[in-house]
Amino acid sequence: xxxxxxSHGRKAIRPSLKPRELMTERPELARAWTAQxxxxxxxxxxxxxxxxxxxxxxxxxxxxxxTVPLREFGEGKHRNVDDTPAGGGAGMVLxxxxxxxxxxxxxxxxxxxxPILYLSPxxxxxxxxxxxxxxxxxxxxxxxxxxxxxxxxxxxxYGIAEISLGDFVLTGGEIAAQAMLDATVRLLPGVLGNAESxxxxxxxxxxxxxxxxxxxxxxxxLEIPPVLLSGHHGEIAKWRRxxxxxxxxxxxxxxxxxxxxxxGGKT
Length: 267
Ligand SMILES: C[S@@+](CC[C@H](N)C(=O)[O-])C[C@H]1O[C@@H](n2cnc3c(N)ncnc32)[C@H](O)[C@@H]1O
What we know:
- By secondary structure, this protein is α/β, with parallel strands linked by helices.
- It has two domains: 6-185, 3-Layer(aba) Sandwich (Alpha/beta knot), CATH 3.40.1280.10; 199-266, Orthogonal Bundle (Trp Operon Repressor, Chain A), CATH 1.10.1270.
- 32% of the residues lie in helices and 15% in strands.
- The chain has a five-stranded parallel sheet, sandwiched between helices. The chain has a two-stranded antiparallel ribbon with strand order 3-4. The chain has a two-stranded antiparallel sheet with strand order 8-9.
- α3 (128-135) packs across α5 (174-185) and α7 crosses α8.
- The chain is elongated and about 70 Å long.
- Residues 119-122, 144-146, 148-149, 164-166, 168-173, 176 line the site of S-adenosylmethionine (SAM).
C-alpha cells in the first residue's frame, strides 16, 4: 500500500513514459519527493535509478528527478563552465558564477526545505542514517562536481554541506549521486512493497544483516541451516539475531561498539 499523497497517484501518470521522459517536469508531482541534479552530464540520469524498484517508483510518481544541465548556464558562445585554478596547478575548476546561475534556477523549482549537497570526497561519509534523514526532507539538490571540483565560494555563499560516497576519488559526482539517491528513494513511503525488509536489513538496527538462503534446500553439498526450515519463528528470529551480531562483531568492530554503547544507554 502506498502512503504517498493522493495527488501523486498512478492515475495521474502516463504509464508508457520511458526513463528519461519520467524526469521532465510534471506539475502533478509538485509535492512528490524531488531530487535535483546539477550536472554536466544530464544524460547519465536516471541511469540505474530508472530500473527496478526506484524506476517503478519514479514511474508511479512516488518521487521525481529533475536534472539541471550545468552547460546551459555556461559563459559565452562555448558555454564555458570551468577555468584554471587560482594559484596554479593541474586541471580545471567549476566557475562560481556559472554554478550560481544554475543553483538560482534550480532552487526556484524545489522546496526551500530541501538541502543542497555537494558530492565531494572531502565531505561527511554518506551512510544509512544520512539516507534516512534525506528521505524525511521534501527532496534534495545534489551538485555533481567534475575536474578539480567546484569554486569554494559557492559552498561558502550558500552554506552547502559536502557529502562523500567513500574514501576514493571518482571522476565526477554522477555515480555518487545515483548511489545516494538509490539508498534514499527506497526508504520513501510506498517504494518498497514489504516495509519489514527495511526493518531487518543491514544497518537498520545498527547491525549487519544475517545470511540469507533460498531453495534448493541443498546445493553443491551445502544445506540451508535446519533452523530456517523448522517453522519455529521464535527460533528463526533468535538464530538470525545471533548471526547478525556475530557478523557485525567480526567484520565491523566500529558498528558493534556503537551498537553495544546504544544498548548500554538504554538500560
Ligand atoms: C576528480 S573529482 C575532484 C577531486 C578533488 N580535486 C579532491 O581531491 O578532493 C571530481 C568530482 O567527482 C566527485 N567525486 C569524486 N569522488 C567522490 C566521492 N568519493 N564522493 C562523492 N563525490 C565524489 C566530486 O563531485 C568531485 O568534485
